[in-house]
Design a protein that fits this description.
Order of helices and strands: EEEEEEEEEE
Number of strands: 10
Largest sheet: 6 strands, mixed
Shape: globular
Strand content: over 45%
Radius of gyration: 13 Å
Strand order of the largest sheet: 2-10-9-4-5-6
Oligomer: single chain
Structural class: mainly beta
Helix content: under 10%
Length: about 110
């Protein structure tokens, strides 16, 4: 399996970013997927998940109302739209199929700072 995250960057508080995850090497459309993040000095945590069909999504409380997860099974790609970003959202963001949980990508750095 291979996971390639992109779209991170430096943004001011209140700004927006859109992340992408290009997956390959497995039957993407058959797997639930998650976005995880690891902030400075923190453990990795999941922040958003989406069912294999894309019909069911779940977000942790800290990002509800601000982040949106979606996927395009034709493109083997998952997305995370992040709005109203806060400094505490600063982290490296990763994508993964939780039932696989291996071959992690490099992640994409998101920095929220003025």
């Amino acid at each position: 399996e291979k996971f390639v995250e992109s779209g991170g960057g430096l943004v001011q508080p209140g700004g927006s970013l859109g992340l992408s995850c290009a997956a390959s090497g497995f039957a993407f459309k058959s797997y639930n997927m998650r976005w995880y993040r690891q902030g400075p000095g923190k453990e990795r945590e999941w922040v958003a998940e989406i069912s294999s069909s894309g019909g069911v999504t779940n977000l942790v409380d800290s990002v509800k109302g601000r982040f949106t997860i979606s996927r395009d099974n034709h493109k083997n790609t998952m997305y995370l739209q992040m709005n109203s970003l806060k400094p505490e959202d600063t982290a490296v963001y990763y994508c993964m199929a939780p039932s696989l949980f291996r071959n992690w990508g490099q992640g994409t750095q998101v920095t929220v700072s003025s």
